Structures are given as C-alpha cells and as structure tokens.
Amino acid sequence: MSIHRSLLLIALPFSLALAQACDKAGDKPHTDTPPEDDTGKPDDSEVEDVDQDGDGITGADGDCDDDDAKSYPGALELCDKVDNDCDDSIDDGLRVCFYPTEGEGSSMDSDFDAGSASSPAEILLTTPGTLVLGEGEWFVSLRISADVSVTGAGVDETTLSGGDSVSVILVEDDLVDAVTLSDLTLTNGQATRLHKDVAKYPAGGGLYCLSSSEPHTTLTLEGVSITASSAVVGSALYSLGCTVNINNSNFDGIDAITETAGVFLENTTATISNTTIQNFSATQDGGGVYVTSDASLALFGSHLLGNKSASSGGAIFNQGQISCAVGQEDGAEGTIQSNTSLGGGGVYIDEYDSAIISSTGCDWGSGTDDNSPDDVNGDGFTAGQSFTTESFTCTYLGCTTN
Questions:
Q1: Cβ proximity of 328 and 358 under 8 Å
Q2: 271 in a structural domain
Q3: Greatest Cα pair distance in the chain
Q4: Is residue 235 part of a domain?
Q5: pTM of this prediction?
Q6: Which of 32, 36, 196, 340 holds its CA 20 to 30 A away from the CA of 281?
Q7: d(CA 32, CA 181)
Q8: 353 in a domain, yes or no?
C-alpha cells in the first residue's frame, strides 16, 4: 500500500468526527445573552471599597455618607442639620445652633455659655435665620435686628434669664419684618430700655419690641412663658408699634415688679389666643394689661386671672379697642376672673372716644371667682357693672348687653 493511501485512511475518520461536531454546534445558533443570574453589575466581591469623599473612611467601614467628607463615625457634630458622626442623630451634643437663611450654620455654644447670673452675655443677632436652643439655662440679653426665629426645646427645657439685670430679648430695628419665639421660657428680666412717652420709665423686662415705622415688625410667640421679670412699664412684654400675635403661652407676674401692667401695648395690634396672663400686681393703672388709645387687643379663649392694680383696671386698663371671645380653633371659653383694683376689677375704661370693650363667650366669674369690686367700670359710669357669661359692649360711658 502506498504511503499516500495510508495517510488518506488515517485522515478520513478524523474529518468525519470534526464534521459531526460542527453539525451539532450548528444546531444551536450563537447569541450574546448572558446567563440568567448575571445582573449586569460588577461583582461587589471583586470591586475595591473606595473612599469616595476622601475622609479616610469607606462605606464598608461605616461612613454613613461617603459623598460628604464631614460625615463619618467619630466626626465632630456641626450645626449643619446633618448627622456628622453617623450615630443617627442630627446636631446632637450641640446646645445652641444658628442656621442663617443663606449659608452654613454655626454653633453659638460658647457665646451663650459666656454669660453668668451676675453678668449675662449680650448677644446680637443681625443675620436672618433660625436660632435653635437645646435643653439648658443661659444668662443673656438677646438683641435681634433681623428676621429671626428663636426656638427652644420646650418651656420646661429651655430658659433664657436676664439675671435680674437686663431685658431678656430686645427687638428694636425698623428693618425687621418678623420675629418668632417658640417653646422657651424668659425669666428674671430687668428692663434696660425706656418708655417712649415717659423716658425715665424702664420698659419691657422680659421682652421689648419697638417698631417706629411701617411696615411694622410682626412679633409672634408660640408656646412661650415669661415669668418673674420687672419694669416700670410692661414687666413681661412692652410693645410700641409692633404687631403682636401670642398663642399657647403663659405670662406670670409672681415675683415680678411693675408700676404699670405686665403687658403694655401702645400703637400695637395684638391678638392673644389660648394664653394666660396672671398674678401681676401694679402700683398704677392696669395690673395685667394696659391698652393705649391707638392700640387694639383681641382675646380668644384666653385667661386673665388674679391680677391686681392699686389704682384702676385690675386685669386691663383700656383706652383702645378690646374684644374677648371664645377660642378661634377649639371654641374654648375665655375667662377674666379674680382680678382686683379700686375700680374696674376686670376692666377699667378711660375717657377716650376710641375706648371700647366687647365680650362674647367669656366668663367674668361669680362668687369667689368674681372680679372686685366690679367687672367693668369707666370714667363716665355711675356705677360699676358685673357680668357672668352674657354678651355685652361697653364704652367709657356705660354698657349695653347684646
């Protein structure tokens, strides 16, 4: 047999086997479809854990925000409304933070901690924003000359004290549109500003608001307690030219010293809702509240209790416009009770054409809760008037029931 024939016989079986293999492969057309368990993403076990923000901590090591170099376990908490130390709490450990309307926040712990009972710190807020106070007591005189909100942790948790030497909060810039105070206590204020009409009289021991041009500053109090503060005029609150809105608050005159009213309102439009004004004792007209001829006061579901005047108007001395009505939201009855003076234990109406009071849905007390010697009296009254819950309207000349 020739060598060529031998090679042919050897190659033929191999060629047949190769052809059969190709035929079988051809039965299944080739596709690019990946296996069913292929997600299309890199296998995490094969990818290096990268520190995205360069803070030295990776996500695998507990960095709660690997796009923020200021956030990682053990980081210093900042006043930025971010969980910097990755403990699931924002700005924890910081007691005083100021967040400007524009820009980054900052801690004011050291500013507030610098004050003491004998030497309160004077703190200026000149930038619009929000001041957040945690739990604690600080001795300060806070001067606000920008649109600022001051919020505490609650009246029993956050206290600002004037140390019986300074007004606690002063708002006195005509460029201020709005100031809001909420969830805190102001106490032991001593007036450091003077009453406009009688410059020798210190005014506004707890809170002083002055707005001499339009648009007038709007001052809002929500859940605020003002206690044990002193002034000749307006020991708790003095407002000249401000628009005042007070809700769910408490003004208490125990340990306060005042000659005229715990709350003094001049050229002011005031709305007081679900608030108690109690225990103020004045040596002059107006124990609880003094309303001048260019001011108005609307009371909704509020309570004036146990206030005293050594002259006229135990609860209120009125030259302007006053209304007493049920609560706007809950319909709760307002009360003017247990107030005393020489005349107008509840309200005394001075001889002004502007002076008027209307009452709808308010309880003026009876028996041991009654005002003494009467509920309403005025310059033109022949005798004081007493009411319980009926609706009525009074001017300085007398009253009519509605």
A1: no
A2: yes
A3: 155
A4: yes
A5: 0.82
A6: 196
A7: 67
A8: yes
